[in-house]
Write a structure and sequence with these properties.
By secondary structure, the chain is an alpha/beta fold. The chain folds into 2 domains: 5-137 and 153-159, 3-Layer(aba) Sandwich (Leucine Aminopeptidase, subunit E, domain 1); 176-508, Aminopeptidase (3-Layer(aba) Sandwich). It contains 13 helices and 19 strands. Belongs to the peptidase M17 family.
Length: 509
């Protein structure tokens, strides 16, 4: 295959590092690169990437050598789908531009092949929608809004696989491309500036995305505007959105497979398109990344569309709870009491704890349809970031078996997640003397009391609990530190892969 960049895997050995299996290089090239690895003191571990030009016996003008072993020695040297995904991503991040990149990595099975494709596509991701296009020589730049720049730095990505002509391998490639495209779309939504992305424009974007999908006929869209939300009794999201000139929306996406569905799942996403904190105003420095407060809704939208495009035999619904939390003249106040969709009255303690309010209404709406299980996804609490850092999501559940399934799906997807408890003794912190509940406790166990609040709404119309999981993705949804593996700065698209893996696994049981 012709390519101007060749990506090869590297692993640790007793002398330092060696080329991984699966590259099929002529002896001359392999010998040269082995000597180069020694001279560069390569480690063969993740994010150890080296670019070598004009390798003898290789047609590509550049060879990118990427580590495939776990980053830390204590984790061993095993090459897994996770390390292949990250290694392929790190390699593509090192490619400034190319017409074609060929990956020759150890993709000996479907999981590794999919990981290589996902990693490469996501590592080459760049958000360019607001970049001004460079005018052609002699042309004057256009005035007005920014023009779309080159959509990517790599025109084509190729993967060397022994079974490339096999139908199962082709299906694996198609699914990996679909998942990577869905994750990239979630990244696009998160990276979009908040003056351009607000509740209605979010709805418009998802509507257009569905309309362009090959699975559009299988996805039903329902949108509730502010008047309809008030009529539905969704006091949580109405209250959060009332301080903004851009009113709230709840957007429902319902994917139904052909034939009888093997089950049903409902995903609920927090979609605060910008969070000032409301009248409990955040410090300015804390607002810099608050365009990412809709990452949960972005992940839900992308995962439902991906499930439909993959043709999974399980019904998947998404509820995007969209609002802008602003301190306008009609903004909600601490001390207000609102009535939720479920009929529960809630006393507002802190207008900067708004995410749980919009989710609670979404959970109630979803629960009324009696799905097999509910999952809410939200950039919910700084407390979770303090507990788990900025690369690991917190998982809470009212059902141990279901929580274990979500955790296993995250492991399969390569998205770090850690289970957290829902201690019953903390429930007392949510008692209100003047309402059924208050929506926030004190500073201790803040992520847990947020989960306990949401648990109150994970029920059907008769008040019976539905298996439910809460994913607090406040840390991994948005990267401000250095890129790593296939994860670039800005929106990461975290949780899309987990939600798709959960649906795929649900259909398989």
């Amino acid at each position: 295959m012709d390519a101007d960049v060749l990506v090869l895997g590297v692993v640790p050995d007793e002398t330092g590092a060696a080329l991984a299996a699966g590259q099929g290089l002529p002896r001359k090239a392999a010998t040269h690169l082995t000597e180069v690895l020694g001279a560069l003191e390569a480690s063969g571990r993740l994010d150890d990437v080296h670019t070598v030009a004009l390798v003898p016996g290789v047609n590509a003008r550049k060879v990118v050598l990427t580590g495939l072993a776990p980053k830390h020695k204590r984790e061993g040297t095993t090459v897994s789908p996770d390390t292949i995904r990250a290694g392929a991503g790190a390699a593509l991040r090192a490619v400034t531009s190319a017409d074609a990149v060929l990956l020759a990595l150890p993709t000996g099975d479907a999981a590794r092949l999919a990981a290589a494709i996902e990693g490469a596509l996501l590592g080459s991701y760049a958000y360019t929608a607001q970049k001004s296009a460079k005018p052609e020589s002699g042309a004057k730049p256009k005035r007005g809004r920014a023009q779309a720049a080159d959509p990517g730095k790599v025109a084509k990505i190729l993967v060397h696989a022994a079974d490339a002509g096999d139908k199962d391998a082709k299906d694996t490639v198609t699914r990996a491309e679909t998942l990577a495209a869905a994750t990239a779309y979630a990244r696009d939504l998160v990276n979009c500036p908040p003056n351009l992305l607000y509740p209605q424009s979010f709805v418009d974007s998802v509507t257009a995305r569905v309309g362009a999908s090959k699975a559009k006929a299988r996805i039903q869209i329902v949108v509730h505007d502010e008047e309809q939300l008030a009529g539905l009794g969704c006091g949580g999201i109405v209250g959060v959105g009332q301080g903004s000139s851009r009113p709230p929306r709840i957007m429902e996406l319902h994917y139904k497979p052909r034939g009888k569905a093997a089950g049903s799942l409902a995903y609920i996403g927090k979609g605060i398109t910008f969070d000032t904190g409301g009248v409990c105003l955040k410090p300015p420095a804390s607002m810099l990344t608050m365009k990412c407060d809709m990452a949960g809704a972005a992940a839900v939208a992308a995962s439902v569309i991906a499930a439909a495009e993959m043709g999974l035999p399980v019904a998947v619904s998404g509820y995007l709870c969209l609002a802008e939390n602003m301190p306008g003249g009609n903004a909600q106040r601490p001390g207000d009491i609102v009535t939720m969709r479920s009929g529960t009255t809630v006393e507002i303690i802190d207008t900067d704890a708004e995410g749980r309010m919009v989710l609670a209404d979404g959970l109630a709406l979803a629960g009324e349809k009696q799905p097999d299980a509910l999952v809410d996804v939200a950039t919910l609490t700084g407390a979770c970031m303090i507990a788990l850092g900025n690369k690991v999501a917190g998982l809470m559940s009212n059902d141990d078996d279901f929580g274990a399934r979500v955790l296993a799906s995250a492991g399969e997807a390569g998205e770090p997640m850690w289970p957290l408890p829902l201690p019953d003794d903390l429930r007392a912190k949510l008692e209100s003397p003047i309402a059924d509940l208050q929506h926030k406790g004190d500073q201790y166990g803040g992520a847990l009391t947020a989960g306990l609040f949401l648990r109150e709404f994970a029920k059907d119309a008769d008040g019976a609990e539905i298996p439910w999981a809460h994913l607090d993705i406040a840390g991994p949804a948005y990267l401000t530190d250095a890129p790593f593996g296939h994860v670039v700065k800005g929106g990461t698209g975290y949780a899309v892969a987990t939600l798709v893996a959960l649906a795929a696994g649900w259909a398989a049981t």
